[in-house]
Amino acid sequence: MDEIFGFPPQLLLAQIFMGLINGSFYAVLSLGLAVIFGLLRIINFSHGAMYMLGAFSAWFGLQYLGINYWLALILSPLAVGVFGLLIERTMLRRIRHVDHLYGLLLTFGIALILEGAFVHFFGVAGQRYPTPDALQGGINLGFMFLPYYRAWVIIASVVICLGTWLIIERTKIGAYLRAGTENPDMVQAFGINVPLMTSLTYGFGVALSAFAGVLAAPLVSVSPYMGSNLIIVVFAVVVIGGMGSLLGAVITGLALGVIEGLTKVFYSEAAGLVIFMIMIIVLLVRPAGLFGRPE
What is the model's pTM? Predict the structure, then answer.
């Protein structure tokens, strides 16, 4: 078959790969949101700002401390995770037992403050972060030229998502986390520090966002608004997959990235809307999301 729906198969395969790259960012970011909401019931609207902090911390490290990309991939999520831990202990913990709307408003305010501060000091033009030398160049797949760095983004995202899912769903630590959200008094009775566990969970969730920010730094301009341009789409991904569903966040993120990429081929005008159209349909048919469980 020379063409599929009037388009050469090489073009469709290339768009699938490009969609997987976007879907990788959707998967990691939505996974962080799902971890925070699923275990802590916090709608973290500052997630995009943490993604931006991850990219900026990698840029700071390279410009002023000589920290290379590979070290930044470890240190930046740790630094942003510690920052998130402090936010949880000093602010979010105080409103944990009130309506979820207060957590959303608080994290939204944090995002605006962080973005405003970075705009004040760095402007909106953005900064360039170079691709690491080991991932320069690419490979010819026959139907497209795939840069090594973009292939690395897909592999790293899948590995971090799979590792997170295994830790939370298949280990004793994950069992303690899930039990701590359901019955914290019982878990506390077994000698487990539930407040510390809660802080670490939030810190881990925002560290995932920062990890995605470091991955994105060589691909996009590192700017204060890089997270706000993406977070609305990521929230839509989480809603479609099911709020709090880790597996749903990963699968839906990757799948919607591919769907968005193919939409650019068949009907490019709808590429920016297709995810939201799918969200509306899913909410009408299955309000809990594709992988979510009704309350």
Answer: 0.92
State how beta strands 145-147 and 138-140 pair: antiparallel
Length of the chain measured in residues: 295
Helix (H, G, I), strand (E, B) or coil at 287: coil
SS (H, E, C) 11-74: HHHHHHHHHHHHHHHHHHHHHHHHHHHHHHCCCCCCHHHHHHHHHHHHHHHHHHHCCCHHHHHH
Q: What is the CA radius of gyration of the chain?
A: 19
- Cβ proximity of 30 and 47 under 8 Å: no
Give the pLDDT confidence of 107-122 residue by residue, as tens digits: 999 999 999 999 999 8
C-alpha count within 13 angstroms, C-beta hemisphere, residue 122: 20
Cβ count near 99 (within 10 Å):
9
SS3 127: strand
> Residue-wise over 105-124: b if at least 16 C-beta within 10 A, else e?
ebbeebbeebbeebeeeeee
pLDDT in tens, 17-48: 889 999 999 999 999 998 888 778 888 999 99
Residue with tokens 């899930």: 178
Spatial CB neighbours of 24, under 8 Å, sequence gap ≥ 6:
153, 154, 156, 157, 158, 215, 253, 254, 257
